[in-house]
Amino acid sequence: VEFSTLQFIKQLETSSIRKVQIQQIILLLLRILAITALVLMLAQPVTQGLMPGWLATEQRARLVVVIDNSASMNGKIDGESLLERAKSGAISLLPFFHDNTQATVVQTCPEKTIFTGSPHDPLLPSLIKDIEASYEFDDIWTVIDSLVTDPTIDELVKECVVFSNLMHRPDSTFLAKNFRDDWKFYFINPGEIYDNLSIQSVSSINRIKTPNELVKLNARIKNSGNLPKPNVPVELLFDNHRVGQVVAEFTPAREKEFIFQAYPGRKGIVRARVTLPEDDYTADNNWFISMPVMEQIKCGLIASTQEELTILEMVFRSIDPTNQFLFIESRLQPDINRLFIDELDVAVIHNPQNISEEAIAALDHFLKNGGGLIWFQGSGDPEVFNDNLATHLGFPVIEELKKTGTGFFKINYRKSNSDLLANLQVRNIQKELPEIFSYINAKTTRKHKVHLSLNTGDPFLLEFSKGSGTVFYFTSLLDLRWNDLPVRGLLIPLVYRLLILTGTDEINTAPVAVGSTKWIYIEQDYIRSTWEVESPSGQKTLIVPDFNREGILIPATDELGIYRVFANGELFTSFPTRLYYKEYIQEELSQENLDQMISEDNTQWLDLEADFAALFSEIRQGKALWKTFLLIAIALLLLESILGRPNPSKMKSPDNHD
Fold first, then answer.
1. What angle do CA 182, 188, 194 make, to 5 degrees?
2. Which residues have C-beta within 8 Å of that of residue 471, sequence separation ≥ 6?
3. Are strands 562-567 and 570-578 parallel, antiparallel or unpaired?
4. Is the pLDDT assigned to residue 658 strictly greater than 50?
5. What keywords appear on the UniProt entry (predicted)?
6. What sign for the dihedral angle of Cα 17, 21, 27, 31?
7. For residue 7, what are the contacts with CB-CB under 8 A and spacing of at least 6?
């Protein structure tokens, strides 16, 4: 007979045995997993990196490190420039490359290989530290392309590490190229600039400046950072004296425009500057201008017929309809026997029939004293031509009058590299070039600079100097029977440019991008002077003039600011340097911007952070997992110990007896 109490005890015994069995199975699994984790730890596995570990350590390798030291790398984060951060990051990577690696370190501005050799060379860190900041533009994609397409690189492992705040994609011609697939690229971003206001442009509303006329400047300013900027003073300075100020608020990614008005106060070249308070990137906080200031221009128009005089008056009055700066005096002189032009700044002589020796002497005196002359030659008779124009004043010699009949001659603009036509305010200069029906074939010399020539090779517009004066010489008249220039849109901008060039120093004071060369034109009487160039920081350099081209070439403009040029110790001219437009702070590139060039499988993008070196190593060769498996094994063994320990409350006491 089975008693109910015994039946209950048997059921309890069965349940206890089942629990013990489950516990033992769990403990067995924990021990197996712990042992597996320890075995995996000893195997030292790693995650998949861009460069397999065995390949990176056993093969000959080539490492190219490109360090961007352009203007934008002068931006600062917590008081440290992006360039300094990049140099520190580059040095921290060197220990990760083995002795079989041939390392090449390149700076971008100017492009220069500063080291080639072992990455463990003790001199390499100091060479990297010596890379200097610049304010120039780096064509970094061209630098990278020239390095990775070097045919002498034959190593199996090829890696390129680029430290740069990449902000601009390559141009379309560069995108057509394909980087070689055997290169691995690491693009390292040294950091993001948060506090930045930039002067995008400052343009002059006035075309000509005089001491007694308000100069109007339009300044365009953008908040390129991520911080709102309240109560920011924007200042205009003339010769380091503040002449205008406005206080404004700037929200991120927004632009504002301001118009400053001020009197120059004096003649000559005024050094102007629009400035902002300092922020994390100071290279775009100043905009420099060399502003030639002149008084009113007195212009004399001399023609042989009333019809010609009327056309000249119409052209010159359209330049200054309100007579604010241009005072015009008209004279009808078919035969120029005497000239009274000493009081003029510019003389315009159109189609003179005869000119006397006395008039030539007056022209000679006028030009030597710095006057300007615009000459339209219409008479093609060599017998009438006064030879003293060529011998005394340097005019071209007249040979013959050429006519087309029913056709016309064209201006050969493609062969013109004239600075006179650069940045001319014409929408499409090719369409505005005149058709020539008649012209004077003039024999030029090496002293004549041809700005425009015909498809016959003969000159149409040329320039030469006499003393301190400048002469612009047309071989055709402002007459529809000679050409259609009077009805072309090119005429007014061209005449205005001639007027400015004969009265001011606009070309010599024109700005250049920092790092570019600058050509300064010199009058013949000044060519043998002692020439000296002073940089914005005050460093002076002697320059030897080019006697054949009558000018000086300034080869290095590596500072932002205004360069001043001196002749025999006296100021001759000055010109500003400007930040290249691609060096303004913008949004950085990402992998999506370069999919056409570099495969995503061969590229890694990293930020230069505190643990950058360790992160680079993990991305390059994979992350070591032995610590992870060790922690897993320890956790499993602890859990096994907890589950497998005996329960004292269920153990028999040795003092208990049945």
1. 155
2. 367, 372, 373, 374, 375, 393, 394, 395, 463, 464, 465
3. antiparallel
4. no
5. Membrane, Transmembrane, Transmembrane helix
6. positive
7. none
AA identity, residue 50 = L
Residue 52 has pLDDT above 70, yes or no: no
What's the rounded mean pLDDT across residues 543-562? 89
Under 8 Å between Cβ of 311 and 266: no
Q: Extract the tokens encoding 121.
A: 């060379």
Comparing 8 with 525, the larger pLDDT belongs to: 525
Alpha helices, H only, 396-490: 429-432
Q: pLDDT tens for residues 77-106?
A: 999 999 999 999 999 999 988 888 999 999
Which residue in this structure is represented by tokens 């379309």? 172
Q: What is the pLDDT of residue 54?
A: 47
Query: In this model, does residue 187 exceed pLDDT 50?
Result: yes
Amino acid at 612: F
pLDDT digits (tens, 9 = 90+) for 625-653: 667 778 888 888 888 788 777 766 655 55
32 vs 286: which has the higher pLDDT:
286
What mean pLDDT do residues 30-38 have?
A: 83
Residue type, 424: L
- Measured in whole angstroms, the distance separating CA 347 from the mean position of its chain's CA atoms is 40
The pLDDT assigned to 426 comes to 73
Evaluate whether 160 touches 185 at the Cβ level (below 8 Å): yes
Asked whether 264 and 281 are in contact (CB, 8 A), the reply is no
Superfamily of the domain at 297-503: Class I glutamine amidotransferase (GATase) domain (3.40.50.880)
One-letter amino acid for residue 45 of the chain: P
Q: Rounded CA gap, 425 and 112, in Å?
A: 39
**Amino acid letter, residue 396:** P
* 556 three-class SS: coil
What stretch of H or E contains 498? helix 491-503
Q: Does the pLDDT value for residue 416 go beyond 60?
A: no
5: enclosing H helix or E strand: helix 4-43
pLDDT at residue 374 tops 50: yes
Give the whole-number percent of the chain exceeding pLDDT 70: 87
Angle between helices 4-43 and 626-644 (to 10 degrees): 160
- HEC secondary structure over 511-545: CEECCCCEEEECCHHHCCCCEEEECCCCCEEEECC
Instruction: Give the architecture-level CATH label for domain 197-294.
Output: Sandwich (2.60)
Do the domains 54-192+602-621 and 197-294 sit in the same CATH topology, yes or no? no
CB atoms within 10 A of CB 36: 14
Q: What is the mean pLDDT of the chain?
A: 85
- Tell me the C-alpha distance between 104 and 126, whole Å: 15
- CB-CB neighbours of 283 under 10 Å: 21
Domain boundaries, the chain: 4-45+625-650, 54-192+602-621, 197-294, 297-503, 512-578
Q: Domain 54-192+602-621, CATH 3.40.50.410 — does that match?
A: yes
Select, from the ranges 24-33, 197-206, 461-470, the one with the highest average predicted confidence (pLDDT). Answer: 197-206
Q: Which residues contact 218 (CB under 8 A, 6 or more apart)?
A: 202, 203, 204, 205, 257, 258, 259
**291 touches 264 (CB < 8 A):** yes
Architecture label for domain 512-578:
Sandwich (2.60)
> Measured between alpha carbons, how far is 216 from 258 in angstroms, rounded to an integer?
10
Partnered with residue 534 across adjacent β-strands are 540, 564
